[in-house]
Amino acid sequence: MNTTPFSTLRVISLTASDWPRSDRDQPQVDATTRLPALGERALVLGGGGAAGNAWLIGVIAGLFEAGLDVTEADLIIGTSAGSTAAAQISSASPTRLLGHILSGTHQQRTGPVGSPSGPVADHMRRTSEIIAVAEGAADMRRRLGAAALELDAASDGSGQRRWRATVSARLPSQRWPERTVQIVAVDAHSGQPVVFDRHSGVDLVDAVAASCANGFGVPPYGIGDTRYIDGGYRRSSENADLAGGYGRVLVLSPLGGRTRAPLDWGMHLAVQVDELRASGSRVETVLPDSDSRNAFGSDLTDPSTRPPAARAGYDQGRALAQQLTEFWR
Residue 201 in contact with residue 224, Cβ under 8 Å? Predict the structure, then answer.
């Protein structure tokens, strides 16, 4: 089980020459060097690819239009696709974000609704092999980072530039919000978890791009001299334990709280929820219902899943609004 305390995670070291001139005078501080400022309400947004991001926006929009605005949380934690959603809901209304998904042009599925294929299947195979031989969560992260860096060594750097442009286009604003948003990634060199916030001296686009560097089609993401991989490898696709100390914690998990790691590593969501409750937090989790899972299909990275996933999430959010309003308020 990963028991790395929040206050002792790795500090990022960046070289001044790696930053645009306007950013070089900013303090290079990592969010993990500080204990969180405890508050009342925390919103945790887990990873889950293109479909998961759309589902998150749909759920939040459904709650919003039913009268519950969870974007006003004191803390928003985003991991992988959830980091994109965290940045999006911090600078645009859920209704606008939902409308953008539903009105956009998306490619249709080109393959059968069955087992993943292509890059996704290759990635799942490689990561499953690494998990199978790892001695624990920390060893898994180190091995995953090393494998990602090996692939990255053969690249010419153009993939990172394209990925940054893609992430930038997804965000309504390029600036960190004033509210507390924390974005999770993993240092590919050391395997150590990193949490970025607006005090970290890292652009919002770079933080989100690092958190989403999942390994299939997205290489390790470089910030300064360091490369980062998907924040879902820290502990889980949700990393809900980072909300410790908050009175009420709402977790939206596109992957349903599951983990591919051995259960005794304690990386599944249920363990984190038990830990939060034991420390005094009230916790509610929202997992995809059957309609949402059907909308996801077998490949959550498929862009064609976004409209149906968003619609299913919206319906689920509206259905849960009354129950969650009593909890949240």
Answer: no
DSSP designation for 105? -
Return the number of other C-beta atoms located less than 10 Å from residue 104's C-beta.
12
Angle at 288 between CA 284 and CA 292, to 5 degrees: 150
Question: What are the pLDDT digits (tens) for 238-257?
Answer: 999 999 999 999 999 999 99
pLDDT in tens, 292-316: 999 999 889 999 999 999 999 999 9
pLDDT tens per residue, range 194-219: 999 999 999 999 999 999 997 666 78
Work out the angle at residue 182's Cα, subtended by the Cα atoms of residues 178 and 183, and round it to the nearest 5 degrees. Answer: 125
**What is the CB neighbour count within 10 angstroms for residue 277?**
12
The pair of structure tokens assigned to 181 is: 């948003």
Contact by Cβ (8 Å): 80, 211? yes
- Decide the pairing of beta strands 75-79 and 41-45: parallel
**Distance from C-alpha of 180 to C-alpha of 193, rounded to nearest angstrom:** 18
- Could you tell me where the beta strands, DSSP code E, fall in 3-143? 41-45, 75-79
SS3 206: helix
Q: How many whole angstroms separate alpha carbon 133 and alpha carbon 307?
A: 38
Place of tokens 């977790």: 251
CA 141, CA 242: separation in Å to the nearest integer?
A: 18
Report d(CA 304, CA 50) in Å as an integer.
9
